[in-house]
Amino acid sequence: MQGDQTVGVTPWVRAHTGLKGVRHxxxxxISKKLETTAEILENKENDNTLxxxxxxxxxxxxxxxxFDQLISWVPTPEFLLQWGGPEFRFPLDNEQLERxxxxxxxxxxxxLIYKVVHTETQKxxxxxxxxxxxxxxxxxxxxxxxxxxxAMRGQGIGEQMVIRSEH
Length: 167
Description:
N-acetyltransferase domain-containing protein, Acyl_CoA_acyltransferase, 2 domains, acyltransferase activity, transferring groups other than amino-acyl groups, single chain, GNAT_dom, 6 helices
């Protein structure tokens, strides 16, 4: 396909972005994926009753009692860097986590930090945070997403965590 040829976008992308066309089929494929993702998200209930009509996870504030569990999920310096970025050094310890949660999870806080609890077992299975919260513009950065419990991976828990953090 030549670079100057315009390819149409999906109706959803056109309605939500104003784009009428793009110059490459790759972007057309992206527009289709955006539309599919948007449809999925719009059809999910706000309380995340995703599997069998039951809520699988709850987000609860991450607190010092949860430190040991999170530390146990971080086996290597490479994993810590990938998960936590340069904010932490290996081995992860309580002192670093105390600094991490300082000022978080309060009214008006710029950072909300959660443990992820499996509703059926009440077991902590993961971690997620929202940072750089801008309440005026209703935006935040999702970060430090971890399905720490290996047996829970591959079941859509990460997707639920991200969706749940948006509410």
